[in-house]
Design goal:
This protein is an alpha+beta fold. It is built from two helices and nine strands. A hairpin with an 8-residue loop joins strand 4 and strand 5.
Length: 173
C-alpha cells in the first residue's frame, strides 16, 4: 500500500511542476535545426570500355545545422566501386579529385565559404567507402543558409580536366 501512495504523490508533483513552468512562460531550450538531403549519381568511367560494368555510384548527404546566427555545414560522401576496378591505384589524378562543400545563402549570388576534401587516395584504394567532410561554421545571422556539394573527379589518362558533379543542396536552415 505504501508504494502506491508515493507513486501517486510523484504524479501529482510532476503535474504541478509542468503547470508551474507553463504558467511562468518558461519553455525548453531551443534545439538547433538540422537539415540534410541525400542524392545519388551513377558516373561512368571514361577510360574503360571493357566487358565489366564501369559506373561508380556516388551518394552525397548534404547537411546544414543552425544554432542561433551560426550555421554548420558538412557532407557525407560514399561510393560503390564498379566491377571493372580490379586493382588499387592509378584511377584518379591527385590535384583535381575531391569534394567541395560550400555554405551559402540559397539562391544568392554572393559566394559562400568553401572547404575542399581530397578524395583521390580513398578512391584509389579500390574498395567501396565513404568520408564525412570536416564541418565548418559560417555566420549567416537570421538569414537562411544551405550546404551545396560538388564532387570533382580527375580521371587519369583521359586527357581532360576534372569533371564536376553537382549534387542536391541541403534544405534551408
Amino acid at each position: 500500500m505504501r508504494g502506491t501512495r508515493s507513486k501517486a504523490r510523484y504524479r501529482v508533483t510532476g503535474a504541478v511542476t509542468v503547470t508551474a513552468v507553463a504558467a511562468l512562460g518558461m519553455s525548453a531550450p531551443a534545439q538547433a535545426a538540422e537539415a540534410c538531403k541525400t542524392s545519388s549519381k551513377s558516373i561512368d568511367t571514361p577510360t574503360y570500355s571493357g566487358p565489366w560494368p564501369d559506373n561508380w555510384k556516388f551518394t552525397v548527404k548534404a547537411c546544414a545545422k543552425r544554432s542561433g546566427g551560426r550555421v554548420s555545414h558538412w557532407a557525407k560522401v560514399s561510393w560503390d566501386l564498379p566491377a571493372s576496378v580490379f586493382t588499387p591505384g592509378g584511377i584518379f589524378n591527385t590535384p583535381g579529385t575531391g569534394v567541395s562543400v560550400t555554405g551559402k545563402r540559397p539562391g544568392g549570388r554572393a559566394a559562400g565559404v568553401t572547404r575542399w576534401t581530397d578524395l583521390r587516395d580513398r578512391l584509389d584504394r579500390a574498395r567501396d567507402g565513404s568520408v564525412t567532410t570536416p564541418a565548418f561554421t559560417t555566420g549567416h545571422g537570421a538569414g537562411q543558409a544551405v550546404t551545396s556539394v560538388v564532387v570533382e573527379l580527375d580521371w587519369k589518362n583521359d586527357g581532360k580536366a576534372p569533371v564536376r558533379y553537382v549534387f542536391t543542396t541541403s534544405p534551408k536552415v
